[in-house]
Design a protein that fits this description.
It is a single chain. The protein has 302 residues and is of the alpha+beta class. The chain has two domains: 12-179, no CATH class; 197-290, GIY-YIG endonuclease (3-Layer(aba) Sandwich). Helix content is 26%, strand content 16%. The chain has seven helices and ten strands. Strands 1-4-2-3 form a four-stranded antiparallel β-sheet. Strands 7-10-8-9 form a four-stranded antiparallel β-sheet, sandwiched between helices. Strands 5-6 form a two-stranded antiparallel ribbon. A hairpin with a 5-residue loop joins strand 8 and strand 9 (233-239). Helix 4 packs across helix 7.
Length: 302
Protein backbone atom coordinates (compact mmCIF):
# COMPACT_ATOMS: atom_id res chain seq x y z
CA UNK A 1 0.00 0.00 0.00
CA UNK A 2 1.39 3.41 -0.92
CA UNK A 3 1.67 6.12 1.75
CA UNK A 4 -1.35 8.36 2.26
CA UNK A 5 -0.14 11.98 1.96
CA UNK A 6 -3.12 13.20 4.01
CA UNK A 7 -2.39 10.77 6.88
CA UNK A 8 1.38 10.33 7.07
CA UNK A 9 2.89 7.72 9.35
CA UNK A 10 3.82 9.10 12.79
CA UNK A 11 7.43 10.08 13.25
CA UNK A 12 8.82 8.04 16.16
CA UNK A 13 11.36 10.79 16.86
CA UNK A 14 8.51 13.18 17.67
CA UNK A 15 7.45 11.15 20.70
CA UNK A 16 8.63 12.68 23.94
CA UNK A 17 8.93 9.22 25.49
CA UNK A 18 11.56 8.37 22.86
CA UNK A 19 13.80 11.36 23.63
CA UNK A 20 17.18 11.15 25.36
CA UNK A 21 16.06 13.64 28.02
CA UNK A 22 12.64 12.13 28.77
CA UNK A 23 11.50 13.12 32.27
CA UNK A 24 14.86 14.83 32.88
CA UNK A 25 16.86 11.59 32.82
CA UNK A 26 20.01 10.96 30.75
CA UNK A 27 19.01 8.18 28.35
CA UNK A 28 21.34 6.32 26.04
CA UNK A 29 20.63 6.32 22.30
CA UNK A 30 18.36 3.52 21.10
CA UNK A 31 20.40 0.36 20.63
CA UNK A 32 19.12 -2.72 18.74
CA UNK A 33 18.98 -6.04 20.56
CA UNK A 34 20.98 -7.32 17.58
CA UNK A 35 23.87 -4.90 18.21
CA UNK A 36 27.38 -6.28 18.55
CA UNK A 37 29.15 -6.33 21.91
CA UNK A 38 30.97 -3.08 21.27
CA UNK A 39 27.81 -1.11 20.44
CA UNK A 40 25.90 -2.65 23.34
CA UNK A 41 28.56 -1.41 25.78
CA UNK A 42 26.87 2.00 25.52
CA UNK A 43 24.31 0.63 27.99
CA UNK A 44 25.30 1.78 31.47
CA UNK A 45 26.58 -0.69 34.06
CA UNK A 46 24.84 1.17 36.91
CA UNK A 47 21.34 0.45 38.30
CA UNK A 48 18.54 2.45 36.76
CA UNK A 49 15.64 2.41 34.33
CA UNK A 50 15.15 1.11 30.81
CA UNK A 51 12.61 1.18 27.99
CA UNK A 52 12.07 -1.17 25.06
CA UNK A 53 10.39 -0.45 21.72
CA UNK A 54 9.83 -2.27 18.43
CA UNK A 55 12.05 -0.86 15.69
CA UNK A 56 10.14 1.53 13.43
CA UNK A 57 7.07 1.74 15.66
CA UNK A 58 5.77 4.70 17.65
CA UNK A 59 5.07 2.96 20.96
CA UNK A 60 6.87 1.28 23.82
CA UNK A 61 6.74 -2.38 24.73
CA UNK A 62 8.02 -2.11 28.28
CA UNK A 63 9.36 0.27 30.91
CA UNK A 64 11.36 -1.31 33.72
CA UNK A 65 13.85 -0.71 36.49
CA UNK A 66 16.68 -2.76 37.93
CA UNK A 67 19.00 -2.60 40.92
CA UNK A 68 21.48 -4.68 38.91
CA UNK A 69 23.71 -3.39 36.14
CA UNK A 70 21.51 -2.10 33.32
CA UNK A 71 23.95 -3.59 30.81
CA UNK A 72 23.80 -7.00 32.46
CA UNK A 73 19.99 -6.93 32.73
CA UNK A 74 19.36 -5.95 29.13
CA UNK A 75 22.11 -8.15 27.73
CA UNK A 76 20.57 -11.14 29.50
CA UNK A 77 17.14 -10.22 28.15
CA UNK A 78 18.24 -9.90 24.53
CA UNK A 79 20.01 -13.26 24.65
CA UNK A 80 16.96 -14.87 26.28
CA UNK A 81 14.78 -13.72 23.38
CA UNK A 82 17.10 -15.23 20.77
CA UNK A 83 15.61 -18.68 21.24
CA UNK A 84 12.68 -18.73 18.82
CA UNK A 85 11.21 -22.15 19.60
CA UNK A 86 10.47 -21.78 23.34
CA UNK A 87 8.81 -18.99 25.30
CA UNK A 88 11.04 -17.96 28.25
CA UNK A 89 10.04 -18.61 31.85
CA UNK A 90 8.46 -15.74 33.78
CA UNK A 91 11.48 -15.57 36.07
CA UNK A 92 13.91 -13.97 36.51
CA UNK A 93 13.06 -11.68 33.57
CA UNK A 94 9.40 -10.90 34.17
CA UNK A 95 8.84 -9.15 30.83
CA UNK A 96 10.54 -11.82 28.71
CA UNK A 97 7.48 -14.06 28.01
CA UNK A 98 5.35 -11.15 26.81
CA UNK A 99 8.12 -9.70 24.64
CA UNK A 100 8.71 -13.17 23.17
CA UNK A 101 5.00 -13.61 22.37
CA UNK A 102 4.78 -10.31 20.49
CA UNK A 103 8.06 -11.04 18.74
CA UNK A 104 6.74 -14.44 17.66
CA UNK A 105 3.38 -13.07 16.51
CA UNK A 106 4.44 -9.81 14.85
CA UNK A 107 8.11 -10.30 14.04
CA UNK A 108 9.12 -7.31 16.16
CA UNK A 109 12.80 -6.38 16.30
CA UNK A 110 13.50 -4.71 19.63
CA UNK A 111 15.61 -1.72 20.61
CA UNK A 112 16.42 -0.50 24.10
CA UNK A 113 17.49 2.68 25.85
CA UNK A 114 18.62 3.03 29.47
CA UNK A 115 19.12 5.73 32.08
CA UNK A 116 21.22 5.36 35.24
CA UNK A 117 19.58 6.39 38.50
CA UNK A 118 21.46 6.45 41.77
CA UNK A 119 18.52 6.24 44.18
CA UNK A 120 16.97 4.17 46.93
CA UNK A 121 14.67 1.29 46.05
CA UNK A 122 11.66 3.54 46.63
CA UNK A 123 13.16 6.34 44.57
CA UNK A 124 13.94 4.08 41.61
CA UNK A 125 10.63 2.23 41.71
CA UNK A 126 8.77 5.49 42.16
CA UNK A 127 10.52 6.92 39.10
CA UNK A 128 9.51 3.82 37.17
CA UNK A 129 5.87 4.41 38.11
CA UNK A 130 6.24 8.04 37.10
CA UNK A 131 7.62 7.09 33.67
CA UNK A 132 4.71 4.71 33.10
CA UNK A 133 2.30 7.44 34.19
CA UNK A 134 3.83 10.01 31.83
CA UNK A 135 3.77 7.48 28.99
CA UNK A 136 0.10 6.73 29.62
CA UNK A 137 -0.72 10.44 29.60
CA UNK A 138 1.08 11.00 26.29
CA UNK A 139 0.10 7.79 24.50
CA UNK A 140 -3.30 7.21 26.09
CA UNK A 141 -2.53 3.59 26.95
CA UNK A 142 0.10 1.40 28.61
CA UNK A 143 3.13 -0.33 27.08
CA UNK A 144 2.13 -3.71 25.70
CA UNK A 145 4.09 -5.73 28.27
CA UNK A 146 3.63 -3.80 31.54
CA UNK A 147 1.07 -4.56 34.26
CA UNK A 148 0.82 -8.21 33.22
CA UNK A 149 -0.46 -7.38 29.73
CA UNK A 150 0.07 -10.12 27.17
CA UNK A 151 -0.61 -11.02 23.55
CA UNK A 152 -4.27 -12.13 23.33
CA UNK A 153 -3.45 -15.30 21.37
CA UNK A 154 -0.70 -16.59 23.67
CA UNK A 155 -0.58 -18.08 27.15
CA UNK A 156 2.20 -17.11 29.53
CA UNK A 157 4.96 -19.38 30.81
CA UNK A 158 4.96 -19.98 34.56
CA UNK A 159 8.09 -19.68 36.67
CA UNK A 160 10.80 -22.33 36.46
CA UNK A 161 9.56 -24.24 39.50
CA UNK A 162 6.06 -24.75 38.09
CA UNK A 163 7.52 -25.76 34.70
CA UNK A 164 4.51 -24.92 32.51
CA UNK A 165 5.79 -23.51 29.26
CA UNK A 166 3.67 -20.90 27.47
CA UNK A 167 3.02 -20.58 23.77
CA UNK A 168 0.49 -19.83 21.08
CA UNK A 169 -3.12 -20.72 21.84
CA UNK A 170 -5.01 -23.18 19.68
CA UNK A 171 -7.71 -21.64 17.49
CA UNK A 172 -10.48 -23.16 19.64
CA UNK A 173 -9.22 -21.39 22.76
CA UNK A 174 -10.60 -18.04 23.85
CA UNK A 175 -8.31 -15.01 23.92
CA UNK A 176 -6.05 -14.49 26.91
CA UNK A 177 -7.85 -11.88 29.09
CA UNK A 178 -4.49 -10.18 29.69
CA UNK A 179 -4.64 -9.19 26.03
CA UNK A 180 -7.62 -6.95 26.74
CA UNK A 181 -7.71 -3.24 26.05
CA UNK A 182 -5.56 -0.89 28.07
CA UNK A 183 -7.68 1.64 29.93
CA UNK A 184 -6.96 5.35 29.34
CA UNK A 185 -5.18 7.15 32.19
CA UNK A 186 -7.21 8.50 35.07
CA UNK A 187 -8.13 12.17 34.54
CA UNK A 188 -5.68 14.43 36.35
CA UNK A 189 -7.26 16.41 39.14
CA UNK A 190 -7.26 17.15 42.85
CA UNK A 191 -4.44 16.44 45.27
CA UNK A 192 -3.31 13.09 46.66
CA UNK A 193 -5.69 11.95 49.37
CA UNK A 194 -8.49 14.39 48.59
CA UNK A 195 -12.00 13.01 48.05
CA UNK A 196 -11.93 13.86 44.32
CA UNK A 197 -8.29 12.93 43.61
CA UNK A 198 -7.86 11.84 39.97
CA UNK A 199 -11.65 12.18 39.54
CA UNK A 200 -12.35 9.09 41.67
CA UNK A 201 -15.13 9.23 44.28
CA UNK A 202 -13.13 8.26 47.36
CA UNK A 203 -14.86 7.31 50.57
CA UNK A 204 -14.28 9.40 53.67
CA UNK A 205 -11.29 8.36 55.73
CA UNK A 206 -12.07 5.82 58.43
CA UNK A 207 -9.98 3.91 60.98
CA UNK A 208 -8.58 0.67 59.59
CA UNK A 209 -10.38 -1.56 62.10
CA UNK A 210 -13.00 -4.28 62.22
CA UNK A 211 -15.93 -1.88 62.09
CA UNK A 212 -14.62 -0.25 58.92
CA UNK A 213 -13.77 -3.58 57.29
CA UNK A 214 -17.39 -4.58 57.84
CA UNK A 215 -18.67 -1.75 55.62
CA UNK A 216 -16.09 -1.89 52.82
CA UNK A 217 -17.86 -3.31 49.75
CA UNK A 218 -16.60 -6.55 48.27
CA UNK A 219 -15.39 -5.65 44.80
CA UNK A 220 -12.46 -4.58 42.67
CA UNK A 221 -11.06 -1.19 43.45
CA UNK A 222 -8.38 1.09 44.83
CA UNK A 223 -7.54 2.13 48.36
CA UNK A 224 -5.39 4.64 50.23
CA UNK A 225 -3.76 4.25 53.66
CA UNK A 226 -3.00 7.28 55.84
CA UNK A 227 -1.14 7.67 59.12
CA UNK A 228 -3.72 8.66 61.71
CA UNK A 229 -1.45 11.10 63.58
CA UNK A 230 -0.10 13.05 60.61
CA UNK A 231 -2.74 12.41 57.95
CA UNK A 232 0.04 11.59 55.49
CA UNK A 233 -0.83 9.31 52.58
CA UNK A 234 1.61 6.40 52.99
CA UNK A 235 0.34 3.65 50.68
CA UNK A 236 -1.65 3.29 47.46
CA UNK A 237 -3.09 -0.13 46.62
CA UNK A 238 -5.48 -2.09 44.43
CA UNK A 239 -7.28 -5.38 44.80
CA UNK A 240 -9.93 -7.52 43.05
CA UNK A 241 -11.59 -7.61 46.51
CA UNK A 242 -10.87 -4.49 48.55
CA UNK A 243 -12.69 -5.73 51.66
CA UNK A 244 -10.55 -8.86 51.83
CA UNK A 245 -7.31 -6.99 51.12
CA UNK A 246 -8.00 -4.36 53.77
CA UNK A 247 -8.80 -7.07 56.31
CA UNK A 248 -5.34 -8.49 55.62
CA UNK A 249 -3.77 -5.04 56.04
CA UNK A 250 -5.60 -4.53 59.34
CA UNK A 251 -4.21 -7.79 60.73
CA UNK A 252 -0.64 -6.95 59.70
CA UNK A 253 -0.80 -3.46 61.17
CA UNK A 254 -2.06 -4.42 64.64
CA UNK A 255 1.34 -3.76 66.19
CA UNK A 256 2.18 -0.77 64.02
CA UNK A 257 0.91 2.77 63.72
CA UNK A 258 -2.82 3.37 63.60
CA UNK A 259 -4.03 3.85 60.05
CA UNK A 260 -6.91 5.50 58.28
CA UNK A 261 -8.26 4.17 55.00
CA UNK A 262 -10.20 5.51 52.03
CA UNK A 263 -11.40 3.42 49.10
CA UNK A 264 -12.88 3.60 45.62
CA UNK A 265 -14.80 0.59 44.23
CA UNK A 266 -15.11 0.14 40.47
CA UNK A 267 -18.68 0.30 39.17
CA UNK A 268 -18.10 -2.42 36.57
CA UNK A 269 -15.89 -5.54 36.46
CA UNK A 270 -12.34 -4.75 35.43
CA UNK A 271 -9.38 -6.86 34.33
CA UNK A 272 -6.37 -7.29 36.64
CA UNK A 273 -4.11 -5.19 34.43
CA UNK A 274 -6.64 -2.34 34.53
CA UNK A 275 -6.47 -2.18 38.32
CA UNK A 276 -2.68 -2.08 38.13
CA UNK A 277 -2.83 0.69 35.52
CA UNK A 278 -5.06 2.79 37.79
CA UNK A 279 -2.86 2.13 40.82
CA UNK A 280 0.16 3.23 38.79
CA UNK A 281 -1.59 6.45 37.71
CA UNK A 282 -2.12 7.33 41.36
CA UNK A 283 1.48 6.55 42.36
CA UNK A 284 2.77 8.41 39.30
CA UNK A 285 0.71 11.50 40.07
CA UNK A 286 1.85 11.41 43.71
CA UNK A 287 5.48 11.14 42.55
CA UNK A 288 5.02 14.04 40.14
CA UNK A 289 3.80 16.27 42.98
CA UNK A 290 6.23 15.25 45.72
CA UNK A 291 9.18 13.69 43.81
CA UNK A 292 8.97 10.60 45.98
CA UNK A 293 6.76 7.54 46.44
CA UNK A 294 4.43 7.18 49.45
CA UNK A 295 6.44 6.19 52.54
CA UNK A 296 5.24 2.56 52.74
CA UNK A 297 4.85 1.92 48.99
CA UNK A 298 8.01 -0.12 48.48
CA UNK A 299 8.85 -0.89 52.10
CA UNK A 300 8.88 -4.65 51.45
CA UNK A 301 10.84 -4.40 48.21
CA UNK A 302 7.71 -4.62 46.03
Amino acid sequence: MSPDPDHPSPDPKAREFFSQTWCSLSWTPWIPFTADKEEFRAIFKEPGLYRIRPAGKDFLMYIGDTQRSLHQRLNELRHTLKRKDLMPWSDPLIEAPSLWAWQDAEGFMYECSAAPLDASLGGRRGMGNFLLYRYRLEKGESPLCNFGRFHPRYRKSTNRNEKKRGGKLAEKHLDNPAGGTSMPPLPVGGKPGERDWMRCEWSQRRPLDGETIGIVPHGAGLYLLFERDTGDLVYIGQSPDCAQRLRSHAMKLLDEKDMLVSWYIEEKPVLPHTLKERENDLIGNYFEMYRKAPAYQFRNGK
